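#dry-run=false #mode=assembly
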Amino acid sequence: MTECEHSRVGREFLDSVSWPILLRRPAHDQCYCHQCYSSDLPDTLTVAGYTYVIPRGWSRFAVSVDEDFFNHHNVWKTWLNCYHGTSIDNARSCVEHRQLLLPNDITMYGKKLEIREDHIPGEQYVFTTPSIKYAALGCYGHTYDFRSPHDSKLYTIKVVLQCKQKPDSIIVQPETVGAREREIKICPHFPNEVLEWKTKHRSSVMIYGLLLQVKGEDAEDDSNLSLCQSINITENQPHESIIIPPQSASSNENVDNNPKSSPSNEAINNNSKPTRSIASTYRSKWASMSRKRAALLIILVVSTFLPIAALIIGQVYKNDCPMQPWIPRWLIIFGAMGLAGFSLIFITMSITFQRCSKDTEVGNDIGSYMFCLLILFFLAWLIAGSVWIFPANLEVQFNETNKKTYCHKTLYKFAFGLSLVQYSLIGVLVCCCLGNVF
Ligand SMILES: [Zn+2]
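#status=ok
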């Protein structure tokens, strides 16, 4: 049989991105383009008692699965079908890891998965969706321009993973792109209220295909990118959650209405419910990122008060510590450096906040580098201050009559306390760093 244009271009696209050929399963590829899946075939199937929406217009490039695992858990017959919109790089990584990883997981290459900035803070889940329309939204499924080496024609290609998901692992929640507020119905087959599935059960989502939506350059883009722009507005809303109950295998007869699908793949499609979303993995990225930034911000705000106080006290009592004149100077320099440094960091961070590039991590921000430099300076300055402040503690007195051992009480106590606060902060930072490493 002749390969259709969608399948051919999709295959060329996968070649161009070095898709792992050993993890392909071409015998189970299935194209749902208008040519391969005619309009009189059903749009939905019932799988494991749930509606599975056929990804009409998409081409599936099957991914090899662990058949023993699938047979042991009866995955084809009792798990639901779902989608996860993502980038081609993330899709390849997921396929190579044989699963969708959770935020904070460490990949086999040693990279810690963060929640993407444009995703929901604090949501440490794998997200999927029963709706191909929802998975294909621009904030989830990425779109690529691709020129076919066959005829030099330009195409756009969108990427979504097709997965099976264990029903009793799924928490159902409404869409999070603001469609309800604007009364936009995203998917004709599912209400907006049930479009997101999430789970913390990493091994309860199994990838079995990469879906590509191949369009010529003149085709309309129905991905409704504008919907995603409001994602941050709605993400913090509480979601009502419904757990999908486990389905009995007996009730999930495989009814494959698609004459074109291979038996095993069709069974997959019919038995599964649409679940969805890889993109959700990266939602959690948002969360951890924002927490880091919030923590950083709090530290910065608190730390700004200390330099101001140090500057004022050092300046006011600059001649009131004859026993160790370096103590007021130490406070003044500490205050001036602190104010200058933190102001610079504030400016840098506000620029970074506005830029908000999707995959920027806090550790990569310029502000973070400056923060590290400042910490190094203060560390050195703290050691110097300790040499002046702590030995003086043995003989310091606050009666001005004896100039030799006199230091103004407020000045000395503040400098002493400030040193202790800094040592405590260092202790906290070290603990945090060790916590991240291990
Ligand atoms: Zn086709």
